[in-house]
Amino acid sequence: MDIASEDLTDSHSDDGDSPTLSTILAFLVRTGQIQVERSVAQEVDDQSDSDEDYSSGELVGMGQTGSMLCCPLKPDTTQIEGSDLQSEILRNSGRSELMNSGKSNKPPDGSHRAEPQQLNSVTKITYQRQMERFRFGQFSHGDKCVISSRYLPNKREIVAAYRNKAFCGTYSQDGNIFISACQDQKIRVYNTSGDRWKLLKTIQAKDVGWSILDIAFSPDSNYLVYSSWSDNIHLCNVHGENDIHTSLCLNPSDSRFCIFSLMFSQDNREILGGASDRCLYVYDRERDERTLQISAHGDDVNTVAFADDSTHILFSGGDDGLVKVWDRRSLSEHNPHSVGTFAGHHDGITFVNSKGDGRYVISNCKDQSIKLWDLRHFSTRQAQEQTMTHVAKQLWDYRWQSHPKKDKIYKPIVGDSSIMTYMGHSILHTLIRCRFSPEFTTGQRYIYTGCAAGNIVVYDLLTGQVETRLSGQRACVRDVSWHPYDNNIVGTSWDGSISRWYYFNSSSDDFDDLGQIGQKKPKLLDQGRLAGWQL
Fold first, then answer.
1. Torsion over CA: 479, 483, 489, 494 (sign)
2. Nearby residues of 83 by Cβ (< 8 Å), 6 or more positions away
3. If you average pLDDT over every residue of the chain, what do you get?
4. Are 381 and 343 in contact (CB under 8 A)?
5. How far is residue 295's CA from residue 173's CA, in Å, rounded to a whole number?
6. What is the pTM assigned to this prediction?
7. SS3 of 123, please?
8. Degrees (nearest 5) of the Cα angle 431, 188, 527?
9. What is the pLDDT of residues 110-149, one digit of tens each?
10. Could you say which of 185, 210, 336, 405 would form a disulfide bridge with 55 (CB–CB 3.0 to 4.6 Å)?
11. d(CA 257, CA 207)
């Protein structure tokens, strides 16, 4: 019996009666088959009238407004206002130059969500390109990011559909290849260099238990590695006529073992993994052996990442609710001590993603939040102990239960050292991923995540507000991948679909008059590509 069937069966009354309408509705909402839209006020009223520990249906992230119940009505931007990160993001995304160039329509709360009125359209920016402010009539990188931000993906195209749950999907570093992993034990490799995806090859995975749980590209995109419930991870070639399919044994101590998260080092020499036995693993490709096994967390290690291209600093996140930072240069099995720890979540970590600058990292969590951390500000021992205490008190199972209603009012942990918390998405059923948006098209001004309600949720990194919510997939979106150079986002869902979101303009609102009132206005960027920036 599958999890969904067990969930519905277990929710029946003990006397054997048929399930009630509320039970069926809760099941459909929880599995993402229907969505619920409710106002924040109604959610709060409902909560105050009920003493139940668990909600009858998971509403976090389901509708356009219902997700705000579990978080403060206004994100706390105190730590990020005036910080180095704020200046960097504004500069890289082209907004600092615009903010200094004229009157701004900045909201009264002081956030930087809006651009100046006189320069907030593509037509005006294009016009200004010809003026002295733009040398040689060229767009700067910041200008391109400003333009791109006005055309966030809004239309869905199903590029692949499988009969089983899709677990993983990611672009290569150059964006020319996309790989997906499915519960049917197949890895599919697509050529994405053109307007239409082309299936290059299908790899039949080996030694799979339950499903393929993670896949990762090598930095040169010539190889991929995948993991499942197995003592081995497996290395495969992406290109070439002769297939390579090599098992890399990690020699774990536990009889039932799984690598939940994988990543290549940027120099292509090592593979980092986080495992069900609470350990970090490092496999050396040149020596063809496991070179490191570190007891890292108090529970499953669900996610790992390198901080930057140097591959010296590692991140790990576990079901103990902690994000730990490790220095590869001083790390040994005889000295398994982290250099620092981030604490502030209330439940297990599902994913971590580095900004790539060796300073900032985000973590997705079963407490229905993403947190942003700065390596210069680790958490105190008291905060770590409080986090572990909160996690130990969690009695729900996110794989088939709704998030406890008693925990939906966000209460910060004393000593929480995160600089921003993002809430408005739902983490249920599986280890859902979150990432920074790409530098080339956005200046990393966004954070985006999958969602148990079948959405991709995009947050503004500086304001904490939901910038857009891409709804359409019928079950949990487990993995998300934003093309590094084109303006599209791919969602990998448990409904078996791989969906590509791109921008489609259904109106002409993006063009102002500039003396051309009454003239016909063309559609713009209906394929979602900003190729060449020849505007």
1. negative
2. 419
3. 81
4. no
5. 31
6. 0.80
7. helix
8. 90
9. 444 444 444 456 666 665 655 555 555 567 777 788 888 8
10. 405
11. 12
